[in-house]
Amino acid sequence: TSRNGHEPEFIQAVQEVAETVIPYIAEQEIYSGKNILLRMVEPERLISFRVAWVDDDGEIHVNRGYRIQMNSAIGPYKGGLRFHPSVNASILKFLAFEQVFKNSLTTLPMGGGKGGSDFDPKGKSDDEVMRFCHAFMTELCRHIGPNTDVPAGDIGVGAREIGFLFGMYKKIRNEFTGVLTGKGLSWGGSKIRPEATGYGTVYFAQNMLETRNDSIEGKTVAVSGSGNVAQYAAEKVLQLGGKVVTLSDSGGHIHDPDGIDAEKLAWVMDLKNNRRGRISEYVKQYPGASYHKGKAPWHVACQVALPCATQNELNGEDAKTLIKNGCICVAEGANMPSTPEAIHAFHDARILFAPGKASNAGGVATSGLEMSQNSLRISWTREEVDQRLKGIMSDIHDSCIEYGREDDGYCNYVKGANIAGFVKVADAMLAQGVI
Ligand code: NDP
């Protein structure tokens, strides 16, 4: 903490890992005296740069751009770009650190990184977003490459932004390579990539429920967020016979007791992806629903909760309310949405709880599959990618069980994911020496 005391999110993410991994390291002879965790918490490289761009009125703006190259022991750096006013070094370091473990869990050869900017795409025209993305890439392009560092999307970076970023990279480098994932289908993107994080989160929840001879079918599900991850998590819940009753954005959440069916979800997707509107508009379209300003949806009774918006959106009180109302399974679609107090409450109540680094790994896993397809210059079918995604989520689940089982038979997925992710990276670092 002395070196990173001003970075609360980063410290929170490291503490969560340290709590479970340090006792494990203490029992393993090979890691003794190697200071592996100390080496892992220091980014291999942290790049910060100026992004100057001109708005539609001719005014010049300056934002700060970042790329954090955290760990490349098992493959090129890989992780998303976030465009949001809250972005700073602490948030990106927490995300990059989590990414190292997550990518290791996927079984694919990817190191960990993360990047982004404090640029706010909300309220900007398409042309302004394009000019910002182009300006951002004129600097980022010197630090990335298909064998070095392969960024993807995250909050505020979707298909539109990836298109603008890719276009500028291609122009500057004069090469068409898989340097970014989340590309459009006609120019190197993978089928199922837009769906992968949300679908994967629900596949993981299904795997967890199966350990108790249960399933998503017939369950009432609370989802937060209404962006990429939330939309496809909701879609998969519907396909598996569950009922989604909430969605949210940074303004508040909607509660639809009748359930958000496929038609309503299509309306939300159009609202968010094309019209770029607010979730509050849902209640005008569907008056049976209610809107709760400034609140997360965790007071709504549900058996399954899928936090899919942002970090620290579910606190200890929320967790207790969920448990009291009959929640039996929580799978994180977002990164670190549950506070440490919430996680302790879930563990104490012995309900199923999956940390994002395990349950939302389907997105980066499918990005890894996009990289493979780009290298081979082929394109797999939807069914093929979906099967691989399902298989990877099931393998991650098995790894969590292997390392996370406690004496009373309860699976601590946090411990399981942290140790399983750690072992592969630590072994590679040991083999490569002190560098
Ligand atoms: P989007 O930008 O598509 O959606 C983000 C959603 O979260 C929006 O509904 C947004 O509301 C809401 N949100 C953002 N910030 C806040 C906040 N401070 N308080 C409340 N709500 C907020 O992003 P994604 O769906 O891609 O990402 C969501 C989460 O999933 C993030 O934690 C991300 O890191 C994680 N993730 C994403 C992956 C991916 O493949 N996209 C992969 C793995 C994890 P609003 O529109 O009002 O801002």
TrEMBL record:
Example GO molecular function: glutamate dehydrogenase (NADP+) activity
Keywords recorded for this protein, A-Z: NAD, Nucleotide-binding, Oxidoreductase
Annotated ranges, domain Glutamate/phenylalanine/leucine/valine/L-tryptophan dehydrogenase C-terminal: 190-433
Species per Swiss-Prot/TrEMBL record: Robiginitalea biformata (strain ATCC BAA-864 / DSM 15991 / KCTC 12146 / HTCC2501)
Site, as annotated: Important for catalysis: 154
Transmembrane regions: none
Positions annotated to bind NAD(+): 197, 228
Signal sequence, renumbered to the chain: none
Gene Ontology annotations for the cellular component aspect, listed alphabetically: cytosol
InterPro entries named among the record's database cross-references: Aminoacid_DH-like_N_sf, Glu/Leu/Phe/Val/Trp_DH, Glu/Leu/Phe/Val/Trp_DH_C, Glu/Leu/Phe/Val/Trp_DH_dimer, Glu/Leu/Phe/Val_DH_AS, Glu_DH, Glu_Leu_Phe_Val_DH, NAD(P)-bd_dom_sf
Quaternary data: Homohexamer.
Superkingdom of this protein's organism: Bacteria
Protein's GO biological process: glutamate biosynthetic process
Family: Belongs to the Glu/Leu/Phe/Val dehydrogenases family.
Amino acids binding substrate: 78, 99, 102, 153, 367
Name of the protein in its database record: Glutamate dehydrogenase
